[in-house]
Amino acid sequence: MSSGITYLASGRNGPPLVFLHGIGGDGGSFRAQLAHFGARFRTFAWNMPGYGGSDPSAPLTFPALAAALARLLDELEATPAHLVGHSIGGMIAQEFAATFPERVASMTLVATSPAFGRPEGEFQRRFLADRLGPLDAGRGMAELAPEIVASLVGTDPDPEGLELAVACMSRVPEAAYRAAVNCLVTFDRRDALEGHRMPVLVVAGEKDRNAPPEMMRRMAQRIPTALFVEVEGAGHLLPLERPRDFNRILETYLADHC
């Protein structure tokens, strides 16, 4: 039975390595990682529900996203898997690890957080207005993508990665983006941090204003097995803007946990 989730893949041998993209991306965001890790891993980059031809979930919730990931891993016969989650993808990884810990070989959390602040707080209202207001005003994803991407990167981003980030965001369906934004502000898995027992790598960008390194360091300190790494000069789109640095960090970590 099909999971209803589309994905990109590379490699035929080795442990399963699964990449979960951010809210403004898709599986193609991990082009550099698919090329790099396919030699040693069965490597997959999913398109979350509503993205890249994957069946949408209605309503979109984190439990529904974890269940969709479970269906995909069943289809791929890919458990336990090494999960790598970027931004909202890192939240999905946390939800999945809290729900199905035995199915996670390791977890890498990139530019993400354990919660989105106080439910229905002012921060959430501002975030929703900032992200959805331009769409409400009639601007499309392709028009918004270049300025949103520019606001997320740090110093000296990789030009090809920057171009790829804009291309991926441009093709995100507006309905899927809206659903994901509304889902994002509901996340809170702080209760699960101390319970994670799988190896966990926490990677932050020095210049990231959405998931500041100070916050991510505190998150890592609450996870008994976590290793924290900060990438100098990097922003929120770390795997895209610093692909060589990110691949080196992840490769070194996985070498110790495979």
Task: Explain this structure.
The chain is of the alpha/beta class and 258 residues long. It has a single domain (7-255), classed as 3-Layer(aba) Sandwich (Rossmann fold), CATH 3.40.50.1820. The chain has 10 helices and 7 strands. It has helices spanning 31-37, 62-76, 88-99, 122-136, 141-152, 159-170, 174-184, 213-222, 238-241, 243-255, and strands spanning 7-10, 16-20, 42-46, 81-86, 104-110, 200-205, 226-231. A 7-stranded mixed sheet has the order 1-3-2-4-5-6-7, sandwiched between helices. α8 (213-222) links the parallel β6 (200-205) and β7. α1 (31-37) crosses α10 (243-255) and α2 packs across α3. It is globular. The mean pLDDT is 96.
CATH homologous superfamily heading: Alpha/Beta hydrolase fold, catalytic domain
Number of domains: 1
State the separation between the terminal residues, measured CA to CA. Answer: 29 Å
Low-confidence region ranges: none
The strand count comes to: 7
Mean pLDDT: 96
CATH hierarchy: architecture: 3-Layer(aba) Sandwich
User: What fraction of residues sit in β-strands?
Assistant: 15-25%
- Cα shape: globular
Features:
258 residues; alpha/beta; Rossmann fold; seven-stranded mixed beta sheet; 10 helices; 7 strands; 43% helix; globular
